[in-house]
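Q: Structure for this?
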Amino acid sequence: MKEKNIRKKRSGIKAYLYLAPAIAVAAVFYWYPSLKSLIESFFNVNGNGEILSFAGLENYRILFRDPAFINSLKVTLKFIVLFVPANTFVTLLAASLTRRPSRLSFIPEYIFFTPVAVSLSAYSLLMKEIFRGNASVLNNLFGTTFSGITTPGGAMAVLVILGIFLDFGIDYILLMCAFRSIDKSVVEAARMDGAGGWRLYWCVEVPMIKETVLITIFLALKDAILISAPIIILTEGGPFRSTETVMFYYYTEAFRSGNRAVQNALASLVLTLAAFVMALFPMKNRLTGDKA
Amino acid sequence: MKMKRKPLDFVRYILRKVLLVTLSLIIIFPLFYMASSSLFSSSDFNNLRLLPSVPVWENYVKALNNKYFFTYVFNSIGTSVLSALLRTVIVSLAAFAFAFLSFRGKKAIFIALVLTLFIPQEAILYQNYRTVAGLGLLDSWLGIIITGLFPAAQMLLITGSFSSTGKEVYEASKIDGATDLKFMIHILLPLCSPAVMTVAIQSLIVSFNSYLWPLLVTNKPASRTIQTGMTMLGFAESGQYGPQMATLVLVTLPFLIILAFTRKKIESTLIRR
């Protein structure tokens, strides 16, 4: 009994040693900044980040009185509403079309995989050039007059397209592999019972990959709420603040205008919202999925 | 009934193929345009061409001759390899503790670590920037990678993989006199190599492709990575879109080639049969 205790103690010390680097990074670069933002959001803070006095909800009041912030909320909401369904539709369509391997399917499969190999800044720069305005290669090719990033509506559309390209690769891989993981005997049994085509697809196959579809929707939602980096390259929030999302607003407030007070309040709001959204995330699948 | 269905099935088949080809063309178009326009002359851009009138290979010479190109690439490779190494080690050590050892506060520590999944780095950029600046790590490789050194999702992946190895194997190796380190290197990592490789490769790509954080913590051109530097090479400003596109090709092509060889492997690890 005694020996066992000593052994346990020893393995305890070892365990803490192994965990030390992970705990250090998690503490210093996740927990500390989150709690610091939350606490400081209730105080007046000077330019060097020193706490001056208690402010109550004043920072939040300032934030919600800023028309630029209200605008960024509307822009983000608009982006979410446009992007999440469009992204789900396109990625599910691609995965569905290639769900059964055939002789030549490696070509579209490879093409649908390529977006994971292209970086955010590369796609952003490419879209900026492809949709640069009325005079663009696509308009020339199809005889259309799409304004691209030069008008508010066009810029939002391009941002949605860019967003889809950025998420497409990983979503496609997850969905396509989920389709192919479906037990073939189930599909065969449904076929024997007379289900075919659409019925088989909607009533048997899609329900069987429901969890993966949900994961891609949540990932899209998370990315939509947090989108900022592509905007920095693509539009700088313009034209007329039409693509200034909440996180882009945060970025400009924190790093360009140096608005410390508002920055903490905003960070706290986003952290709360993110925690809320992520709590809805199908965690069970994530925790146990890889053991199966 | 079967006879009736056949023409409809054929229409469906054609429709599916048309959709597939259209969607493939849309997805590949940016990459096609990138490759094509990397050989454009300035007038090709102005004339909105789809293919170059005469391939201008000089764009690549200009891209490679940019005085910062190799510095950026070197920084990118350096930071992403270092990050992948450190991440794999940190995550494996933590996963080992959770999978094989029993100790006080195991559950609490596990939850505290997993909950970092709920904290988006984007929302704490400013506080992290202050911390990294305070540590004197601006414009350094460590500064670029340090905030991402603990990926909770990957720890879950490896913990799952380690746990499935079973404690008996660990106990047996201990009886044979193997230290934890020996057990990990000679038994555990080879057994769990798919999961470990996944983490290492994912880390490499994520780190190589990261944009916003490296942009914030690097001010000197000499310390920038290619992803942030690519937008600041100065080609676009001086109207040289050709060399700009050539740079994009040079940075993207290696990954497209790697993908061609690893696609099957990715599929086989994700498809459960």
